[in-house]
Amino acid sequence: MTVPKPVGRVPQRRNARSNRARILETARRELGRNPDITLEELARLAGVVRRTLFGHFPGRAALLEALAEEASEAIRDAAAAGVKPEEPAERALAYFALSMWPVGDRYRMLLALAQRDLGAERVAGLLEPARDEVTAILERGQRDGVFHAHLPPAVLSAGVEAMTVALLEQVNTGALEDDGTRSAVAMLIAAGVSEKQARAVVEDVAATITAEATAD
């Protein structure tokens, strides 16, 4: 005997997924503008009733944790996609920086919430996959004589990470506009590449990434 499927269940699930995605998208946008925005206001801006938002996220902590998990997955994916072991170290670092920037830009509102809501340790955990890859690239570049070696790779990686986070924070405040190229150039300079060479490498890698995206 075939049991009929409950009418309307699939559309309801689809609608629930759509509502959740819309709430998260609204939160990414609005929390960057106003970290103190209320969940009620987020619900209104997302076009859902308060009960719907709280059905997905019982409180502010649950919403932020969902954003953090989303960011963590995006960072892992971008870190994996940005690894170019076949490239010279300076190009590999440019590839990685340009691959990661869209993710950092998308979730930069989390930086404003790091200390108060997520905690520095949680944010550090989110950035760990990117930090490990940058450390590996810097170590290879130091070994090949491309990057300066007066700091251990892990320490230099931490410094580059702090600089990138600072640049993202400046984008948050409106003091800086960047599509990722300025940050990538700064990263290469911090690693020991001359400004002229850093600009040339980033410009060439950015053009290559654009061409690859167009081909796909």
Can you offer a commentary on this structure?
This protein has 216 residues and is mainly α. The protein has helices spanning 9-33, 39-46, 50-56, 60-81, 89-106, 109-118, 120-143, 153-173, 181-191, 195-215. The longest helix is centred in the N-terminal third of the chain and has 25 residues, at 9-33. The model has no long low-confidence stretch (mean pLDDT 86).
Please outline what is shown here:
The protein has 216 residues and is mainly alpha-helical. 77% of the residues lie in helices and 0% in strands.
Distance between the termini: 48 Å
Largest sheet: none
Number of strand segments: 0
The tally of helices reads: 10
From the spread of the alpha carbons, the general shape counts as elongated
Give the overall pLDDT as a whole number: 86
The proportion of strand residues reads: under 5%
User: What is the helix/strand order?
Assistant: HHHHHHHHHH
Low-confidence segments: none
* Approximate helicity band: over 70%
Radius of gyration: 21 Å
Helix/strand-derived class? mainly alpha
How would you describe this structure in keywords?
216 residues; mainly alpha
List the helices and strands and how they pair.
Elements: H1 9-33, H2 39-46, H3 50-56, H4 60-81, H5 89-106, H6 109-118, H7 120-143, H8 153-173, H9 181-191, H10 195-215
Helix pairs in contact: 1-2, 2-3, 4-5, 4-7, 5-7, 5-9, 5-10, 6-7, 7-8, 8-9, 9-10
